[in-house]
Task: inverse folding
């Protein structure tokens, strides 16, 4: 079976594929025009974020069985086009939870303790800045979580248990049984209430038509002037122009951003000139350990499909009922028994 990698993945994952008798090809670069001719005769594709798998590319892949994302998001896959061709699409939900949570907590602490400002002052001979008492404790403060999925829940749990923070959450899509299970330590609120009461607002929702610019001028006007905003989900969830205005006018105290409306960040983006924001290059999940986990789990999904087993986290489950997957269906029934 042939597997195409539009971008290189970790050697541990490649070893798994080769042990499964797969022929692995890595594209010279992830440009669509480079990947397009390589898709002929390919059975599996492991996808990172460097290319969008468009309808045109998917329709060229005449023998493709599975598209396996190394991450949890599917922004760069035309899932509808894949579904029409009965191609299984999988993702790696949950594999990056700990890594992203650690990154978010690092941003919260760095902003609250003013680490970048203090570091710069010491380097420039201003040791007396210590007497300005610029740092703030997060103990006893309130964190507002927009989205209480795997990552949001992990951050809330740590903030509550370790730092004694109050946790408010806004998640209209959270299942009722999970909501009930969290009620001993989470207060659920509408968006406006969460925004106005939180000392830290941390965003953990996917980018959809309903969540685009979920945080805009109106929301920033409700935030406390000493509050900070963290976004490690998708750049489009926050109106970036509104955020710049809020930071420039000190309407909020600061922001920690791992995602942006345009990536890479253009050189003329005004965020680059602001001192009350910490910027990281969409790297929350890109720890050494996490990228290995993501790649190996993505490889396992491909191998499962090749072996007639249902893989983890199928995004378009309706394809499993198509005639193409009768053998896999039989395997599912056997496992269910």
Result:
């Amino acid at each position: 079976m042939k597997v195409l990698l539009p971008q290189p993945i970790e050697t541990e994952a490649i070893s798994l594929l080769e042990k499964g008798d797969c022929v692995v090809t890595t594209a010279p670069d992830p440009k669509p025009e480079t990947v397009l001719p390589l898709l002929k005769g390919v059975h599996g594709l492991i996808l990172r974020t460097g290319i969008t798998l468009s309808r045109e590319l998917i329709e060229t892949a005449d023998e493709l069985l599975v598209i396996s994302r190394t991450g949890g998001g599917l922004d760069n896959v035309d899932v509808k086009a894949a579904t029409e061709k009965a191609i299984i699409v999988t993702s790696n939900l949950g594999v990056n939870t700990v890594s992203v949570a650690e990154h978010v907590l690092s941003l919260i602490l760095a902003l609250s303790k003013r680490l970048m400002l203090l570091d710069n002052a010491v380097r420039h001979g201003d040791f007396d800045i210590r007497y300005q008492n610029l740092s703030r404790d997060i103990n006893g403060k309130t964190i507002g979580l927009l989205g209480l999925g795997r990552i949001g829940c992990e951050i809330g749990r740590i903030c509550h248990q370790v730092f004694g923070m109050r946790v408010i959450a806004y998640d209209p899509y959270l299942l009722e049984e999970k909501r009930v299970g969290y009620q001993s330590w989470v207060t659920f609120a509408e968006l406006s209430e969460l925004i106005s009461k939180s000392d830290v607002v941390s965003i953990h929702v996917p980018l959809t038509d309903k969540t685009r610019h979920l945080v805009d001028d109106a929301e920033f006007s409700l935030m406390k002037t000493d509050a900070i905003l963290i976004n490690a989900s998708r750049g489009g969830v926050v109106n970036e122009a509104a955020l710049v205005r809020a930071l420039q006018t000190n309407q909020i105290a600061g922001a920690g951003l791992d995602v942006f409306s345009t990536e890479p960040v253009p050189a003329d983006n005004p965020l680059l000139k602001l001192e009350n924001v910490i910027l990281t290059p969409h790297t929350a999940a890109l720890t050494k350990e996490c990228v290995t986990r993501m790649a190996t789990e993505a490889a396992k999904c491909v191998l499962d499909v090749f072996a007639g087993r249902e893989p983890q986290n199928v995004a378009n489950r309706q394809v499993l009922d198509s005639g193409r997957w009768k053998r896999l269906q039989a395997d599912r029934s056997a496992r269910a028994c």
